[in-house]
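re: ur question from yesterday

yeah so i grabbed the chain u mentioned. its 146 aa long if i counted rite. heres the sequnce exactly as i have it in my notes:
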Amino acid sequence: MRVVVQAEAFDFGVEASAFASGVSGAGAVVTFTGLVRDLSGGLSAMEIEHYPGMTERAISAIAAEAAERWQLLDALVIHRHGRLGPGEPIMMVATAARHRAEAFAAAEFLMDYLKSRAPFWKKEITGTGADWVAAKDEDEAALRRW
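ran it thru and got these structure tokens back, copy pasting raw so excuse formatting
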């Protein structure tokens, strides 16, 4: 398993290819990439803050839980921090398992966790100011299913 928290952009194709080629015995590889959304049409940037070390430990713990629950062969989580523009990749999850159901379930679990519980703080910056992104009820509901 690999967890990476970085400011630099990542190349989804390179990461997905390297992940898939490094797994032996998998019947399924699932990947997901989240992008910075501009829901209001006025987003200039999103700033993401975290505590180095703490964030990686928290994500690693949940990735280990996913690996155990769904018998994953491997998992990858990449999450960016710093200043990101609309449309930029913000995170990537990849899971590998012997069967697709396990790979999909583990990927969804990881994505729901990253959205709701990973220790990141996000601020949306627009032409009229900046606001911290608050937790959403639908994100909490998604996490409760696990």
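noticed a couple things. The domain at 2-144 is CATH 3.90.1170.40 (Aldehyde Oxidoreductase; domain 3). also The first strand starts at residue 2 and ends at 6.
anyway ttyl
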